[in-house]
Structures are given as structure tokens and as C-alpha cells.
Design a protein that fits this description.
The complex is a heterodimer.
Chain A lengths: L1 H9 L3 H27 L7 H29 L6 H9 L2 E7 L11 H4 L6 E7 L5 E3 L12 E7 H11 L7
Antiparallel strand pairs in A: 1-4, 2-3, 2-4
Helix pairs in contact in A: 1-2, 1-3, 1-4, 2-3
Chain B lengths: L13 H24 L3 H28 L3 H32 L6 H7 L5 E6 L11 H4 L1 H5 L2 E7 L2 E4 L12 E6 L1 H12 L5 H6 L1
Helix pairs in contact in B: 1-2, 1-3, 2-3
The chains are: A alpha+beta, B alpha+beta.
Chain lengths: ~170, ~210
């Protein structure tokens, strides 16, 4: 969620920012459910410490999601983010990039599971389809198609490699 | 990294402070989860140290930002920076609260471990054994992040704890390496560290 919020900021993208806000609402609901479930655990004696640990964990997760939402909120306010933000979030070792998949490239027609991008140090945060639809956290079964734009995070070199794999004339990695 | 007090404000630009905050925020998240999942008090203490540092950086940012604003349009733009910095400070506070679970010896309920065993990425403590092909090689040389998708969060060498080691850090026999990465990659790293696979080329072949 934090990465998604950073990318919303980096690309000044309202759709991504709205997705973060939606996630925040989801986390709120889940957190309430979680707390209720934890309270049900109280029936077991001697587990108080572990249960308190659980409660604290849940609270932290909620606080993190709220913070991520406030980062995304900057984009939704309509204020153009300060150029410093884009520079800072761009220049860190792990960067975020948009990679367009070209026809007949190495990525075209393969599932994420098949591509095993995480073994390259790449994480696919979201995919924008040709019809404009955003899919965040695509499942392993997701089939990559030409025209898809992959929003990825990873180390610079890994992303360069990915770009090659995404191009029609790319050499096999 | 020194702690900044209000009377010794280093002349850091807003950009430098923000970059530092982002780096520390990211590091804290990894350290915190690793400390809880691996039940490591020393890592948890590091998180608290970093939280104090974040607090100091936030003050630094307020001051640098105030000095950088010249007019209304600057002020409007800078407000987005401040909002993000505050959010990163909030994340760091939340993350530091998680480590209290370790420091107060609350322990982690079985259900949390079960969940974390199902999701990626994973955190693991890996010992570099005698005869491992990793000994004498640096993180940068091995290109761990690109070749294996592994990030080294910390290395415990005897009594010393090296947090967020740089590319020049060399692996020694006996090092306890705390890593983060996809489970399949961690398994490969474990095999290289134990000496089960003697050849680095073989490890990265998969």
C-alpha cells in the first residue's frame, strides 16, 4: 500500500491515489473484524500476552494504512506535488517504473507465475490494461498481454532487464 | 548517522532530509517485521533508535522547509512535502509500536506466524557456514538483489550488528545474515550459505 501511495505521488496519478483510499477503507473494515475475532480468543487462558501482541499488530497495520492514505491524499487534493517529491521518490535505489509490454515480446502471452519476476527482484504493483482498467496486485495467474502497462518496483538493473524483455526486439534475458 | 538536536541543525536541504526519511522509513519497516517474526530484541532496539532519528529529521524538515519558502506559491507546493514527511513519521511510529511486541516480551500469537508463512516476501536468519561459496564475497559482487531478489537487512557478526549493509560488505564465516525475499530465492540463498551448493554460478542458474 505504501508503495502504491508513493507511485501515485511519483506519477501524480489520481486513479492510483483513489485505489489507495479504497484500500484504506478496506483495511479499516478488516481491522474491526480482526479486533472482534481477537476478542473471541479471550476464552483461552494464559494467552493474554500473545493476544495483546495481536491487538498491537492490528493497530499498527491500521496506522500504516492511514499514513499511506494521507500520502495519496496529496494527489487527490489537486495540488501538483512539489518536484522534490518526484525527485526523491525517483532516485532511491529501488525505483518504480511503468513498463509497456510490446507485441511478441518475451512477456507477451505469459502468466506472472511463468515469468517469475520476483526472482529477478521485480514486484508487479499494478497493471493498466489497454481498456484503461487498473488491476492492482495482479495474481500469479494473470496473463500479460501486449499493450499492458506494468507498474513495477525493483532495483534499477532489474527494471532495465525487464524493459528489454518487454520490447519486441529485446534479446532473451 | 548523528542525531540532530534543535541547537545543532545541520544545513540539509529539504530534498536531502526527505530522502533520508524515506530510506529510514523503509529500513524500519523491514527491521520491525524481521524483529517480530524472528523474535530478535536487538533488531527491535535498532528500530527504536531509528524512530528517534526520524523524529529529529521531521523537525529538521520543518525548519528547512520554512527557510526554503519565499512566496505563496512555494508555500502551496511545500505543503505537499510536509504532508508526506509527516506521513512517513507516522509510519515509523506505527512500525516502532510493532517492535514493542518483542521488547515487552509479549510474543507473537501463532496465527501471525502462520499468516506470514503464507505471504511473500519472507524474512529469514541465515548462517554462513564453513565452506560456503559466499565467504569473502561482497554483496555488490554477488549482486544479490538482481541475481537472487534478496535484500540483506542486517548482518550479525559476533557481537556486532550491521544494519542495512552496503554493497561493499563482505560475508564472513559465522555471519548471521537477516534477509528478505521471495521464499524460493531465500531457499537458494540458504543452500549457498550452508555450502550445500558449492558453486555460486549454480545457485543463480535457476
Amino acid at each position: 500500500m505504501i508503495d502504491l501511495a508513493y507511485s501515485a505521488l511519483l506519477f501524480n496519478n489520481k486513479a492510483l491515489a483513489e485505489e489507495v483510499m479504497r484500500l484504506e477503507e478496506e483495511v479499516d473494515e478488516l481491522h474491526t473484524e480482526f479486533e472482534l475475532e481477537v476478542l473471541k480468543l479471550r476464552e483461552r487462558e494464559g494467552e493474554e500476552k500473545g493476544i495483546l501482541g495481536l491487538i498491537r499488530f492490528g493497530l499498527s497495520a491500521e496506522a500504516i494504512s492511514d499514513a499511506a492514505a494521507s500520502i495519496a491524499d496529496v494527489v487527490l487534493r489537486g495540488l501538483k506535488p512539489h518536484p522534490i517529491l518526484q525527485k526523491v521518490f525517483h532516485e532511491v535505489e529501488e525505483s518504480i517504473a511503468m513498463v509497456r509490454v510490446e507485441e511478441k515480446s518475451e512477456l507477451d502471452g505469459k502468466s506472472l507465475e511463468e515469468l517469475a519476476l520476483d526472482e529477478m527482484g521485480i514486484r508487479v504493483l499494478a497493471v493498466k490494461r489497454v481498456d484503461g482498467e487498473w488491476i492492482r496486485n495482479p495474481p500469479a495467474s494473470y496473463l500479460v498481454r501486449a499493450g499492458d502497462v506494468l507498474m513495477v518496483s525493483g532495483y534499477r538493473d532489474s527494471i532495465d532487464e525487464l524493459r528489454e524483455m518487454a520490447s519486441t526486439t529485446g534479446e532473451k534475458a | 548517522m548523528g542525531r540532530s538536536s534543535l541547537s545543532h541543525v545541520k544545513p540539509m536541504s529539504v530534498r536531502e532530509v526527505l530522502r533520508e526519511m524515506k530510506n529510514i522509513c523503509g529500513l524500519m519497516i523491514d527491521l520491525a517485521y524481521a524483529s517480530v517474526l524472528l523474535n530478535d530484541e536487538e533488531l527491535a532496539s535498532e528500530v527504536l533508535e531509528l524512530e528517534r532519528e526520524m523524529d529529529g529529521l521531521l523537525y529538521q524538515l520543518w525548519m528547512s522547509a520554512a527557510l526554503a519558502v519565499r512566496d505563496r506559491s512555494d508555500a502551496e507546493a511545500m505543503s505537499s512535502v510536509i504532508r508526506v514527511a509527516i506521513a512517513m513519521d507516522e509510519i515509523s511510529n506505527a512500525v516502532s509500536d510493532i517492535t514493542q511486541v518483542v521488547l515487552k516480551r509479549l510474543g507473537i500469537h501463532q496465527s501471525v506466524r502462520e499468516v506470514f508463512e503464507k505471504i511473500e516476501p519472507r524474512y529469514r536468519k541465515v548462517v554462513i557456514s564453513n565452506g560456503s561459496c559466499l565467504i569473502g564475497k561482497s554483496i555488490g559482487e554477488l549482486d544479490l538483489d538482481v541475481e537472487l531478489g534478496i535484500y540483506v537487512i542486517a548482518i550479525r557478526r559476533g557481537k556486532e550488528l550491521i544494519i542495512d549493509p552496503d554493497d561493499f560488505e563482505v560475508f564472513h564465516e559465522g555471519d548471521v545474515v537477516i534477509v528478505k525475499g521471495p521464499s524460493s530465492c531465500i531457499e537458494d540463498f540458504v543452500k549457498a550459505a550452508s555450502g550445500e551448493i558449492k558453486n555460486w554460478e549454480e545457485v543463480i542458474e535457476n
